[in-house]
């Protein structure tokens, strides 16, 4: 996986260069394009995930109603609460350094940030 990351960094640096040293128009266009792609992909993934989870729950309920399986819903609920608690604790214990770097980048590149936000909103609408 390290090789793929290196190739992606090489691609980005070769075609986009150093975004914060670019002129304002290029920053806005790069931000809008990457925002639109991110928003579009986010909506596609969200719809697919919602369909899969919702369909799975419906199938479980139908199978339970028809007597094919017996679901202990209270036990399942308790297990899910434990998983949610574990995920929340893992997220809260993660290093905040990368978020600080992202926030610094967005603060220092206002044209890129505004383009990204606008593109993201357009991407989620399409």
From TrEMBL:
GO terms for biological process: autophagy of mitochondrion. Keywords: Membrane, Transmembrane, Transmembrane helix. It is found in: Mitochondrion outer membrane. The keyword Cell inner membrane does not apply. It is a multi-pass membrane protein. Its main location: mitochondrion. It holds the Pfam family FUN14. GO terms for cellular component: mitochondrial outer membrane. Belongs to the FUN14 family. This is FUN14 domain-containing protein 1.
